[in-house]
Structure formats: C-alpha cells, structure tokens
Amino acid sequence: MDKLRKDDADSFKRLISEKENRKLKALAENKRAEWFGLGMFGMIGWSVAVPTFLGTIGGIWLDKNYPQSFSWTLTCLISGLLAGCLIAWNWVIKQD
Predict the structure, then answer these.
(1) pTM of the predicted model as reported, rounded to 2 decimal places
(2) Where are the domains of the chain?
(3) pLDDT for 74 beyond 80
(4) Would you say 30 and 51 are in contact if contact means Cβ atoms under 8 Å apart?
C-alpha cells in the first residue's frame, strides 16, 4: 500500500512539474511575441519613413536645380511613400 502511495505521489509530482514547465515556456514565448511585435512595428515604421524622407529631400533638391511646371518634391514624396509601403509589405510577408 505504501508503494502505491509513493508511486501516486511521484506521478503527481511529475504531472505538476510538467504543467509548470509548460506554463513557464508559454510565458517566455508570450514575452518574446510582445517584443517581436514591437520590433516589427518599428521596422515597418522605419521602412516607410526612410524612403519617404529621402524622396522628399531628393524632390527639394530637384526643385531647386531643375524647376518644372510640377512639384518634384510632391512627386518624390509620393514615390518614396509608395516604395516604403512596398518594402514594409514585403517584409511583413517574409515574416509570416
């Protein structure tokens, strides 16, 4: 009878230990997922902001050096924004 109780106690301890390990693993993965989400949010922001900024700077330079009847700044700003959105979109697709 004592051996049966000891086996039951050992299996109970093993069961509790397995559940604890699963819970700790899930908590660690959840924290990683939060940081991954924040990192992705930042990467997407920079992927859009940098080409937009560079397009705007290039457009200002073109407006000063090669004036036209249209605005180079606006044209390059929109082009940079579209390029940034495409870069971010491709990056998100690769992460999935």
Answers:
(1) 0.62
(2) 2-95
(3) yes
(4) no
